[in-house]
From TrEMBL:
Species of the source: Alistipes timonensis JC136
Keyword Calcium: no
Reaction(s) the record says it catalyses: [thioredoxin]-dithiol + NADP(+) = [thioredoxin]-disulfide + NADPH + H(+)
The protein's name: Thioredoxin reductase
E.C. number(s) listed in UniProt: 1.8.1.9
Amino acid sequence: MEETVKVLIIGSGPAGYTAAIYTSRANLAPVLYEGIEPGGQLTTTTDVENFPGHPDGVTGPDLMAQMRRQAERFGADIRTGTITRVDLASRPFHVVVDGTREIKAETLIIATGASAKYLGLPSETKFRGQGVSACATCDGFFYRKKEVAVVGGGDTACEEASYLASLCKRVYMIVRKPHLRASKAMQQRVFNTPNIEVLFEHNTAEVLGDESGVTGALLRRNDGTEVKIDIAGFFLAIGHHPNTELFSDQLALDAEGYIKVEPGTSKTSVEGVFAAGDVRDPHYRQAITAAASGCIAALDCERFLLR
Ligand code: NDP
């Protein structure tokens, strides 16, 4: 017989696990599917020094393992598997796992996150977590007084470059066009920061490094000439994409594909479906903000079921 669950959580980052902790403690017997990247984006970072309660820091994978354990302690049923189809037309919602197994869910908490975009260079993949990062706020601190580069010319790149400039000796911005896409205010901030050097019309040909991690980058100008820069950190800021493909024609999404929620809540355009974490947040994207929104989704879900 087809299984029916009260709360189905999709995604295993800080938002998903926090929703699982709260809903299991509320006796809602949540089932959580981990998806293709168990633990989410944090498993690709090394040390996390800004998650409150860890004064000596914690590694991303350890933090996620702790959250998972905490959810399991209260009975959350955490399963390996990826949701491949959902039908939100009527409740209980119809959900398919790994293309075969079918489940009915009275409520859904979507915490499928967002993925940073990467350039797709093999050398970039090789040094991921060893100098290559897509989060300056998370990893910038490790490059204090060093030289680093930020790829991208949007608001995120400018913001990350400005942040890194306050810590690092020098920040190169690698921009493929002859101008920045960022807002004028952000551009001014970048141009007024003496230790940021914007390299217009440059693309990254290769990230260079050795066993210690990133040591430089080989850049190709649009006229075909090449230049090498010495850097210890290589930060991507070329955008994120929310993992909302499954819901695209069933939930209201914004122009970038993020799930729209009723302001101040986790409620989506479909009753009984809640969204938490980066899948609904293009701005803050921190583990702690994702965890907080997982809590909000759990409380909204609990109240909905009690109605
Ligand atoms: P954007 O899409 O705005 O910018 C991405 C940047 O990366 C562009 O400069 C783009 O270049 C460049 N890029 C994309 N792909 C590549 C590639 N393969 N190689 C090299 N460069 C590449 O993303 P953001 O994350 O900056 O911003 C997302 C949204 O969030 C925007 O609406 C932004 O305004 C907003 N935001 C607002 C902030 C604020 O108000 N404080 C802070 C951060 C973000 P190109 O221009 O050539 O396409």
